[in-house]
Amino acid sequence: MSGMELPLVVFTVLGQAAVGIVLLSAVRQWAGHPGSEGNLRAEWIVAGALLFLAFVASLFHLGHPTGAFRTLVHLRTSWLSREVLLFGIFGILILAVLWGVLRGAFSGVLTALAALAGVLALWVSAMAYAPPAFPALHNGLPIVFFLLTAVLVGSSGAVYFAPPEKEALLVRILGSALVVGLVLYLVVPWVWLSGGTVMRMTGEAYYASALYWIRLAVGFVLPILVLALSRRIPLWLPVVVLAGEVMGRILFFSHVVHSAVNLGTPY
Amino acid sequence: MKKQLGFFIDARRCIGCFTCAMACKNQYNQEPGVVWRTLYPLGEAVYPHRERAFYSLACNHCRRPTCLEVCPVNAYSKREKDGVVVHHQDKCIGCGNCIRSCPYGAPRYNPVLKKAEKCSLCWERLDAGLKPACVLSCPVEALQLLDVEAFTRVDAVQYPPGFPAFPKLDPSVRFVAPRQPIVFLREDL
Q: Using a CB-CB distance cutoff of 8 angstroms, which residues of chain B are in contact with residue A68?
């Protein structure tokens, strides 16, 4: 297990939250009347602000933040370079959509492009966090985790911006994502237990962690109960969902075992 | 194939004296806690005997190094003439991506410089016609410099038990696994 990597936790969760908000906004515009589905101005300002905070947080991860601009020089093979580029394009598209919204000229094409760039950014970001050193993550799991965060935070956070008649749609999306997420978080460590030594150590670390069980209770079980009982998304629920995702990401960075910790013993 | 330098680790000879690790420390004066080479004792699951056995490991100077691929600022290069993977600290911004990505844990974080660093295979010494400090220091010749292409020992393997196999990276190391002790069993007990 390694450190909590809090700057990376904040960067990834907030970046994915921005993607989720943009994605859900795009879906609502597509499913309703483009440009008139809720408080677009506030929604896109929040998405942009979250992405900005994510970028700021990522700087704290660097030993030399002033060199951050040079991360674009190795696009040929580095997924991290591509991640910075894609999130940069995503940010520019958010600004472009926001510029249109502020001027009363909503662009469906730019919104779709922003959503597409956001999803691509998630994929590229997931590749950056799936190195061979972490056998438990050297597969498709990071993109599943990242997409889950985007949908959970996006669909719950959309309640602040969407018109009231869209709440039922958001409840269905959020409820489905929560159930999928709960099953995923229960099953994945179980699958890890059937892997090699290092992968099994990751599964054992998850099950032995109080944070894992708190994450399940706070991030999944509680929101599912609230949705099932009230059929609504209370205004405090997105905060709880976000807290659950932060805990999940701390687990992701601190409890997944690096292969080098087991050199000299079976891999 | 091009020349590819690396390390030959003879675990039959290694006595676990840490001289190679100390020689590396003396050569480069790393900060406390930063080690480019160290000894990994083999666990009971790999070597279940009262005697101990060790692998002396540092950077493996892989043919396809993950550190080089993942670095966002091009702080790694691979020398054409001998395949040594060099970390250029002046370019490093301390993102730690190489540290996270190398499955052998070769790049380490220097908390004083706030940058990554790793074994350079003493390329300055190589260019001067000298052996790497760790190789030179080994009192039992358990650690040797090798050219993977010219290496012909038939009893050597690339992935012995206790050393994870990552064929995509193709680490430039070869091992002779430790000798199994001779066990005498009394049949009358």
A: 93
Please write the tens of the pLDDT for every residue from A20-69: 999 999 988 877 766 566 789 999 999 999 999 999 999 999 999 999 99
pLDDT in tens, chain B (189 residues): 789 999 999 999 999 999 999 999 999 999 998 999 999 999 999 999 888 999 999 999 999 999 999 999 999 999 999 999 999 999 999 999 999 999 999 999 999 999 999 999 999 999 999 999 999 999 999 999 999 999 999 999 999 999 999 999 999 999 999 988 887 888 876
What would the two tokens of residue A176 be?
A: 């489905």
Contact criterion met (CB < 8 Å) for B95 and A74: no
Domains of chain B, start order: 5-176 (3.30.70.20)
- A7 part of contact set with chain B, CB < 8 Å: no
Give the phi and the psi of residue B10 in degrees, each rounded to 5.
-100, 95
Distance of residue A160 Cα from the nearest chain B Cα, in angstroms: 35
Q: Residue A243: is it exposed, middle or buried by C-beta count within 10 angstroms (0-12/13-18/19+)? A: middle
Domain boundary assignment for chain A: 6-262
pTM > 0.90: yes or no: yes
Residue the block writes with tokens 């962690």: A209
Q: Tell me the per-residue pLDDT of B38-58, one tens digit each, with 9 for 90 and over.
A: 999 999 999 998 889 999 999
Angle at A10 between CA A87 and CA B97, to 5 degrees: 70
- Chain A residue nearest residue B56, CA to CA: A264
- How far is the CA of A161 from the CAs of A20, A157, A164, A231, B117, in angstroms? 13, 8, 9, 18, 47
SS3 per residue for A40-73: HHHHHHHHHHHHHHHHHHHHCCCCCHHHHHHHHC
CATH class of A6-262: mainly alpha
